[in-house]
Amino acid sequence: MVQKTRKLNRDEMLKTLYEDRRSKGYKSDYEDFKSLLHYEKRLEQERVIRSSLSPSASMSDLHSKPASTPKEQRRHSTTELRETELDEDYLTYLIKKAKKSLDGPPPKRPFVPSLEQLRLSRKAEVDAIDQILRPKKPPLPPHLPPADEAYVDAILTKRGTISKSGREQVADKDIARLRPHQWLNDEIINFYGQLILSRSESQKENSKSTPAEKHINGLVNGIKGKGKAEATDKKPLDVHYFSTFFWPKLIGDGYDKGRLAKWTKKFDLFSKDVVLIPVNHNNSHWTAAAINFRKKRIQSFDSMGTARSEVHKALRKYLDDEHRNKKKKPFDFTGWVDWVDEKTPQQENGYDCGVFTCQFLQALSRGEEEDFGFTQVDMPYLRRRMLWEIANAQLRNDP
To answer: Which stretches does UniProt call biased (Basic and acidic residues) (predicted)?
Structure first.
């Protein structure tokens, strides 16, 4: 009887939290919301365990899970998310947190002088013109074309090796990770990174064409792309992709012991436009990072909205160590910034972080990080799209 009462209380608390989150713009369903709470608690547990600060009494239950050892976090391969119990203490803490935010004083109305109104009006006009000249991406479709949807269904029935690209390959057990509600593993993320790298190298080869060849290619692509020939005039980004094994080497062994100088033996890192780096945090969460030479930014994109200062710090040190090794002098960080975009799309469940990470890297490789053009709503479509791309070992150019 007591257990039944506790379950009813817990269900009521969950529903209260769900309605509160929906009132603030949350759009996913109830089951996804519960998976998100499990995920948030898991990440909070690991943060508290790593912290030297004492937690508040209301959060003492977060110490229940012991920290894993480096041996248990072997190699960087992703493990399945293990649900943590959403006990009444934790749900009470979340409700108090939501109520505190709700009961807080309303924000003060900003003082807007007439001059400011004129400035804002002018800005609106400029934004409207900018939208005409550089329109935002249209929303993504809900499905692939019917023939491609059928192709993806057929791929999911195959067994053995599904696809190869460069040194990467994926099998049926890997491709199954792109079904709904599944975490992505190293094999899927590295294969997708290889596709991004192959496209960049292909574009570099195409950019060596003569002016006459570029003109002809532009006309042909314009016919195929229904008027998108102007896209061929855009300078392709020269990117490099570091595999998922780079990050654990960097933070675990360091530049010298990890022999990271050999990772760039065949190319000049500093000649690249963008260096792409998938990051796995404690076998619990995927994020994307980048060294952006074009914009002088150390970038971090997290679909759970966490500021990743440790990523910025580690990549700054790597950049300096690499420059000292290859150029024999310290790296000049003048004008460089640690970049976190507040508009980074956010996940609304406990399993889509890998898909978000792949799409962040894809957008970065095209110089489109100012307008990602996807949200949580697009994840089912993007999983199917990634299945098609990996099976065909090429990235699609259509929306």
So the answer is: 71-83
Annotated catalytic residue, options 352, 353, 358, 378: 353
State residue 159 phi and psi, 5-degree precision.
Answer: -125, 155
Co-location of 95 and 149 in the same domain = no
Q: By residue range, what is the domain housing residue 38?
A: 2-103
Element (DSSP H or E) covering residue 194 = helix 186-206
Q: Is 268 a residue of the active site?
A: no
- pTM of this structure: 0.76
Residue 10 lies in a domain: yes
Mean pLDDT of 182-211: 86
Q: Which of 295, 157, 314, 203 is nearest to 250 (CA)?
A: 314
Q: Is residue 130 part of a domain?
A: no
Q: Note whether 91 and 162 are same-domain residues.
A: no
The domain that holds 207 is classified in CATH as 3.40.395.10
* End-of-domain residue from the set 56, 83, 103: 103
Catalytic residue among 32, 174, 273, 302: 302
**Is 353 assigned a catalytic role?**
yes
pLDDT per residue as tens digits for the range 60-115: 444 444 545 544 444 444 444 444 577 778 888 888 887 777 666 766 776 666 77
Write down the pLDDT at residue 365: 96
> Is 302 one of the catalytic residues?
yes
Q: Would 359 be classed as within a structural domain?
A: yes
**Residue of 285, 352, 358, 378 marked catalytic:** 285
Which positions ≥6 away from 376 have C-beta within 8 Å? 27, 28, 345, 346, 347, 348, 349, 352
Question: How many separate domains does the chain show?
Answer: 2
Given a contact cutoff of 8 angstroms between Cβ atoms, the answer to whether 168 and 190 are in contact is yes
Residues 43 and 148 in one domain: no
Least confident of 10-14, 133-137, 190-194, 218-222: 218-222
> Please, are residues 293 and 323 in contact by the beta-carbon 8 Å criterion?
no
pLDDT at 134: 62
